[in-house]
Description:
Blueprint: H1 17-29, E1 44-48, E2 51-54, E3 59-62, H2 75-85, H3 97-107, E4 114-120, H4 123-138, E5 142-146, H5 155-159, E6 174-177, H6 187-207, E7 212-218, H7 235-243, E8 247-251, E9 276-279, E10 290-295, H8 296-305, H9 316-331, H10 334-353, E11 359-365, E12 368-376, E13 381-382, H11 384-396, E14 399-400, E15 402-404, E16 410-413, H12 421-437
Parallel strand pairs: 3-14, 5-6, 5-7, 7-8, 8-9
Antiparallel strand pairs: 1-2, 2-3, 4-10, 9-10, 11-12, 12-13, 12-16, 15-16
Helix pairs in contact: 2-9, 3-9, 4-8, 6-7, 10-12
Amino acid sequence: MxxxxxxxxxxxxxxxxxxxxxxxxxxxxxxxxYRLFYRRPVxxxxxxGVWLYDAEGNRYLDAYNNVPVIGHSHPHVQQLVGEQLGILxxxxxxxxxxxxxxxxxxxxxxxxELSKVVYTCTGSEAVDLALRTxxxxxxxxxxxxxxxxxxxxxxxxxxxxPSLGPNNEIPPHVVGVEAPDFYRESADEAGERFAQRVRExxxxxxERGVGLAAMIVDSVLxxxxxxxxxxxxxxxxAEVIRxxxxxxxxxxxxxxxxxxxxxxWGFTRHGLxxxxxxxxxxxxxxxxxxxxxxxxxxxxxxxxxIRYFNTFGGNPVSIAAATAVLDVIExxxxxxxxxxxxxxxxxxxxxxxxRHRVLGDVRGAGxxxxxxxxxxxxxxxxxxxxxxxxxxxxxxxxxxxxxxGRAQNVLKIRPPLPFTIDHADLFVTALDEVLGHSVRxx
Length: 442
């Protein structure tokens, strides 16, 4: 997807013998669609909290991975999963208390009208199911997404994931629209301009004879460079979709589960009431579980008329992991921590932007933060090469992030939610050193 910092083998000679041998063995057996991060890949053997460790015991601050949302190797996940493995693990065609209890608890975190849930194993499967449901409900085939979106890797999800690259074909029944760019657009106008682009996309689908089924949007536009504020800018577009008879699908795989520091879900910041919501990766802290949450009226016809079954979706072991995630987010008050630590991180990055001209913009919400790297502050021209250099220099300081955005020039900072104010300060100090000594600055 976003591979500005991909390993290309040019630094193989710089790897220690063990890592070099492992990389060679990996290349021999894995298909070339797999990619490694960083000019010098990191060889990891364990994780704990916000830290990852290599074989020599060196620790790396994880400021990137949203999957272990409550931290790597959390003991509560280990406990509940281990206990459930020793009791029962089967599918959802039997009556099991944990599945029902978790579903009741999960749905209580949503607006009342979002009252039904279907489980899958992955976010990609959940996206696929949401698209099928929307198309069956509306009788139309057309889908609108943002022009650099990523929504998954099944055939249907890849069709609405332009960020997978120029060789990933986008079919005629999918239309992409440019996401708002709050670094280069007026915040007062960007929401309505986005809504106008959505209107035009609806017209294109009508001209192609496929009609509008739905629009799917990652509620923080993470692959489009992270566009978080002003809260509410997505609402005009959602109103346009609804007026045209389409459904709004909120992709909460990345912004969900409290990451944005303002409630559980990204769509609530925009005052939206989606028809369908997609959940994924962080839901089980690394144990495969995902879901589609939706309105009863939207899901009823599909559920009545079409047989859907996912053998492992919602199995008791995955439900145990998902239960542990909710426990820890609530017990450790991680949503509040995301708000506080994220504010500290944003403030530190904004201070750096005042001193390093290569750092053109800082934006985000909670612990989902972007820092845009530019060639020139006046033209605001993206600088992907410098962004890649920053990512790799941070890796050398054992701090892990990645890059995002159409131009691959946006530093993507998205740590596990136990990331604290002290971790934020550590990150800002390291980035200050990188920007001051290791990359081109103006």
